[in-house]
Amino acid sequence: PLYAAGNCSALSARVTTMLELNRQCSACKKQHPPSAPPLSCCTGCLFAYYCNEACQEQDRVKHMTECAGSA
Questions:
Q1: Segment holding 63, helix H or strand E
Q2: Per-residue pLDDT tens digits for 9-67
Q3: How far apart are CA 37 and CA 14, in angstroms?
Q4: By the 8 A CB rule, do 35 and 43 touch?
Q5: What is the pTM of this model?
Q6: In this structure, are residues 25 and 55 in contact, taking their beta carbons and an 8 Å threshold?
Q7: Is 49 exposed, middle or buried (0-12, 13-18, 19+ CB in 10 A)?
């Protein structure tokens, strides 16, 4: 089970990593501080985040090959 004894530190590390990834643009890799406005995310997979439409367009071809929502 995910919440079994001993798995809490691994789960905590994964959540921290996910929060950090949500602050980095998937295209330009710019890291945004927590105080910055939230990045836009891909509505297909909810995993890719972008600074703006230009970054999303720049990453479109690469992302469509890995996006769970494009299948």
A1: helix 53-64
A2: 565 566 556 656 678 999 999 999 888 888 998 988 888 999 999 999 999 999 999 88
A3: 23
A4: no
A5: 0.65
A6: yes
A7: buried
Residue 66: burial class (beta carbons within 10 Å; 0-12, 13-18, 19+) = exposed
Residue 38 CA to its chain's centroid (Å): 11
Main-chain dihedrals φ then ψ at residue 19, nearest 5 degrees: -65, -40
- Is 29:59 a contact under the CB 8 Å cutoff? no
> DSSP states of 3-32 as a string?
TSTT-HHHHHHHHHHHHHHTTB-TTT--B-
Question: CA 39, CA 51: separation in Å to the nearest integer?
Answer: 6
